[in-house]
Design goal:
Number of helices of chain B: 5
Structural class of chain B: mainly alpha
Oligomer: heterodimer
Number of helices of chain A: 7
Order of helices and strands of chain B: EHHHEEHH
Structural class of chain A: alpha+beta
Largest sheet of chain A: 5 strands, mixed
Strand order of the largest sheet of chain B: 2-3
Radius of gyration of chain B: 15 Å
CATH topology of chain B: Arc Repressor Mutant, subunit A
Strand order of the largest sheet of chain A: 7-10-11-9-8
Shape of chain B: globular
Helix content of chain A: 40-55%
Strand content of chain A: 15-25%
Helix content of chain B: 55-70%
Shape of chain A: elongated
CATH superfamily of chain B: Winged helix-like DNA-binding domain superfamily/Winged helix DNA-binding domain
Order of helices and strands of chain A: HEEHHHEHHEEEEEEEEH
Number of domains of chain A: 2
Largest sheet of chain B: 2 strands, antiparallel
Number of strands of chain B: 3
Number of strands of chain A: 11
CATH architecture of chain B: Orthogonal Bundle
Strand content of chain B: 5-15%
Distance between the termini of chain B: 38 Å
Radius of gyration of chain A: 23 Å
Number of domains of chain B: 1
């Protein structure tokens, strides 16, 4: 499905703004002022703000995301689906946070008496956000699958079966974002800490990615420890392409899951795409990917002839 | 960086690996401070014994091309890019000279003469 942009970038956000306002509008008279707005690690409320401020905060975050997405989609129309998916997921997440907060506060006169957040509620929230993201992706038409101008170099090596290519891609931003995430996590001690620390660890792990091409296949390993790592046997690879990766197009850094493609993004720029048969493509950011793609293609050529 | 071995070449495998790394460093495919693949990984990839790779890395360390650090692997050293070419030519010269039956002393004497 491929809805026109005015629908995906106008009507969908409008529905999200509506969903943000609805729980407050329906229960305004039943909310304490201030209302509980932050929950500690044990699930009990430990912070509060006036309902109007919480609503303004949620709408403000949504508006910032909305404006950024409109601007990026105008600049990179090919990646519209990724961003609209992100818009829907974040919108659903914010709306869900609003609903859960209102439900926990409804009918109380003092925010201290507000109900706790349940793990089930949070899991449900994440599932709904994921579903909204997928719906957004589908409504916006998904990713263009054909890459007619794909660059598939072939390297001229005498003995492709006795050659090895090894290179890595290192990003500075994931280190910075990882550190920021860890600091935010520790500063806002509470339920969110675990999430921020996990995000930080993942970002730092994926900041340096090494890719090795040999007769064994393509080995992709993360970080200083080289763990996690995985191996793609040559038999699974149809061909290898050079791709200029834009982290925004994959929705950020780290291990990215998109329909039909998985990506390990440490930075923007030079990347290697492994086109696999019967499996999603794998994209890895790595320096000098033209040589790597060339060696893979010449190995494939040697094994098939 | 691209490392290529030639099974038909008369050169021992460790010398071929060392030569391939020198070429890659000289060509700028690996920058100063970059890590080379771990010896174990490279050995698996090239389907050779790990000690063959370690011997090549050891030779490169003695030439001052790389630094071997426990736990961090082999790191390309400062100033190694310029000397990588010279080391490779010396390696080629030694191989050629021994094929022609010249001893190391004779080659050194010939080199000295070129300098004067």
């Amino acid at each position: 499905m491929n809805l026109p942009r005015w629908l995906t970038l106008g009507l969908i956000p409008l529905a999200i703004y509506g969903a943000l306002g609805l729980p407050f509008a329906l229960n305004w008279s039943e909310l304490p002022n201030p209302m509980a707005s932050h929950w500690g690690l044990n699930g009990a409320a430990d912070g509060a703000m006036p309902p109007a401020v919480l609503l303004a905060l949620l709408v403000g975050i949504m508006a910032a995301v909305h404006i950024s997405v409109v601007r990026v989609v105008n600049r990179i129309p090919d990646e519209a689906a990724s961003f609209i998916a992100g818009l829907c997921a974040i919108g659903a997440l914010l709306a869900g946070v609003g609903w859960l907060s209102v439900l926990a506060n409804r009918g109380q006169t003092d925010w201290h008496a507000a109900g706790g957040l349940s793990v089930v509620g949070i899991l449900l929230l994440l599932a709904v956000a994921g579903g909204a993201g997928m719906a957004g992706w589908w409504l916006a038409g998904g990713r263009p699958t054909s890459r007619p101008n794909a660059d598939r170099p072939v390297l001229d090596v005498a003995n492709p079966t006795h050659a090895v290519w090894s290179s890595h891609g290192t990003g500075k931003l994931p280190y910075v974002l990882g550190a920021v995430s860890l600091i935010i996590g520790l500063a806002t001690w509470g339920l969110s800490t675990v999430v921020f620390i996990l995000i930080g660890l993942v970002l730092v792990t994926f900041a340096d990615v090494r890719t090795t091409v040999s007769q064994r296949g393509v080995v992709v390993s993360m970080g200083w420890l080289g763990f996690p790592s995985w191996i793609v046997p040559l038999s699974e690879i149809a061909n290898a392409e050079v791709e200029t990766v834009s982290p925004m197009a994959y929705g950020g850094w780290g291990y990215r899951v998109r329909p039909d493609v998985r990506a390990v993004v440490a930075r923007g720029g030079d990347g290697l795409r492994l086109v696999r048969t019967g499996k999603p493509d794998l994209v890895v950011t790595v320096d000098d990917s033209a040589t790597g793609a060339g060696l893979i293609n010449s190995m494939l050529g040697a094994s098939r002839s | 960086m691209l490392l290529e071995l030639n099974p038909e070449s008369g050169l021992p495998l460790y010398a071929q690996i060392a030569a391939a790394v020198r070429r890659a460093v000289g060509a700028g495919e690996v920058a100063v401070g970059d890590r080379l693949p771990a010896a174990r990984d490279l050995a698996q990839s090239l389907d050779v014994n790990m000690h063959t790779v370690l011997r090549a890395y050891n030779d490169l360390r003695e030439e001052g091309l790389i630094e071997l650090r426990r736990g961090r692997g082999a790191i390309v050293r400062q100033g190694s890019v310029a000397s990588a070419g010279i080391h490779q030519r010396i390696a080629d010269l030694a191989a050629e000279a021994s094929r022609q039956g010249l001893t190391a002393d004779e080659v050194v004497r010939m080199l000295r003469k070129e300098y004067s």
